[in-house]
Sequence to fold (427 residues):
Amino acid sequence: MAEPDEDEGKGRIRSVVVIVAVLAVMGALWWALALTRPLPPRVVVMSTGPEGSAFPGFAERYRAAFARVGIDLQLRPSAGSVENLARLKDPHSDVSIGFVEGGLADPDRDGDLVSLGALFYEPLWVFVRSTETQPKLGDFIGKRFSSGAEGSSTRAFSLRLLALNGIKSDVPLLAYSPQEAADRLVAGELDGATFMTSWDSPVIRQLSASPEVRLIGFPRADAYVALYPYFTKLVLPMGVGSLEKNLPSTDVQLIATKATLVVRKDLHPAIQYLLLNAATQIHGGPGIFQKAGQFPAAEAIDLPLSDHARTFYTSGKPFLQRYLPFWLAVLAGQLLVLLIPVVGVLYPILRLAPVIYGWSMRRRIFSLYGELKFLENELEKGGATDALRRRLDRLEARADHIHVPVTFRHLQYTLRLHIGLVRQRMG
Fold:
């Protein structure tokens, strides 16, 4: 009669443990899902730069790196860094990555943007049509001079430097793209042009080797660097443009800023790591102004470094991405984020479950001991009766048929032994 009750009690204990475990796991999963980001997007948009600058060429190499892992990096040409920055700040724009020169962003206004580090030097190049070995910029003020299109860093820095030197802002400046300005300068349709781009830019290679133009340097480069720390002093060696023609004919001092890779703060971490890994492959080699391994660099020129970039520069790629293909590493990382809290919840439950189960088994046996004690007390007070014998028989039957694991079987045998001792006293 009592065995079904015992099984029912045992089932209730198991049900409670299972319910508690399920609720705990569901709570842990909900918490993990709330913190887990979705998978990386399959399409990402980068704002690049104008034709003839270095940005489009580098962007194509980033696109190839993304294509190898199945992500479509779409490239949007622009007038330059100023327009790139505007696109990144525009909440209605789909651009989430862009090249921006140091010295143009404002951390107070651009709080939703972060930097992934410095990539390469971008000198301010001033080329003029002249036969003189060392022409002066002042001789070309007011002539046919191009300083880049609106939205370009070339125009922004050209106007800034003109103002620093006390030259009126109403000086007429044409707004040709880098390639068009270079072509017109070589053809004699311009007297001068400025370019804010790297040595790898096609137009800089073209003009540096052209005998029709001369490169004007910055003799006071140290002063610019002292006043504006985002500038760096560089020296273009004599003859590097053309050894045959010895162009330039002297060493030329330049001022340069550093191009940075800027992203929106909410860009998926996996995409940020992919950009950083590609940047290491693309910009990590030696160059005319840099040593191997100098770039990309963990430099926060205007904008703060992304937390993920800081981790990358300290520890390298995430552990899983070092050994697994990109998407497999991302999926495994997501699963780990989900499993860690689940394991954290299940582990103490699983550790506690045997204790609870052992306690429940002992409790079932000890409850029969309690009944046996009551019978023994009644025996001492009133002696043996048929009613006591029948109750002892039922108790013994329950003790014989109680289901306990082998681990607790010795308690069952001990209980039956004690029931036998009480039966002996009844006679």
